[in-house]
Amino acid sequence: MIDHNKVDYLQSLQPEDEHEALFAHIRSYAVEHNVPIMEEDGLQLVLDLMDAAKAEDVLEIGSAIGYSALRFALSGRMKRRVQTIERDEVRAQKARTNISAADAEEWVKIYEGDALQADHFAISPSSFDVLFIDAAKGAYQAFFDHYAPCVKPGGLIITDNVLFRGYAEAPEKAPKRWRSMAKKVHAYNRELAANTAYTTTFHAVGDGVAVSQKD
Q: Is residue 115 very low, low, confident or very high in pLDDT (cuts 50, 70, 90)?
């Protein structure tokens, strides 16, 4: 659960963002409509990593209502081109509305559909500096395997929610309705840690962020 008092405080410490009124509106909408969006401390970490890597092209799996895509595109030290995929029709339409409100169509392009059936999106190998995974947690490994070839050598694959409400460490302790998902996130984390083609670090911010650099 996002502590919006904390978010507002942290935002007050950042240089003024011309889009902050819109971002605040999107955060309020997310609370009202129970739409999960990235927590601020995790988001700031990702922005810092993108800035450090001088990332210009980002592919996001899981747009929701466009909040993180807009932040990636507009809130760093440089603007970035973001392509983002969302399978929920209602959320995709809201994301389009938010992208338009930010006058960011030049920077953020949204595709609607199942990300695992997205070959028609014409995404080329080694074309992105960053792959950001924040969609169906049970499919994290499938997303990684499907889209890793799209990341340039030396690029980053960043995965949100790898703590999964704190249950990924010990899935057997998760409530029954979340136990299967917790097991899948647990297995995904172990696979990331063991994958020698990537150097992965895990960060205890937000709901957990994994950063995998492609060798």
A: very high
Q: What is the pTM of this model?
A: 0.91
Q: Which residue has the tokens 């466009």?
A: 66
Express each pLDDT in 136-168 by its tens digit: 999 999 999 999 999 999 999 999 999 999 999
Query: Which CATH number belongs to the domain containing residue 46 in this structure?
Result: 3.40.50.150
Domain that holds residue 191: 4-214
Residue 45 near residue 10, CB atoms below 8 Å: no
Structural domain count of the chain: 1
Query: Is 180 in contact with 188 (CB distance < 8 Å)?
Result: no
Q: Tokens representing 78?
A: 């440089």
8-state DSSP, 20? H
Q: 159 pairs with which residues across the strands?
A: 133, 210
Report the alpha-carbon distance of residue 27 to residue 35 in Å, rounded: 9
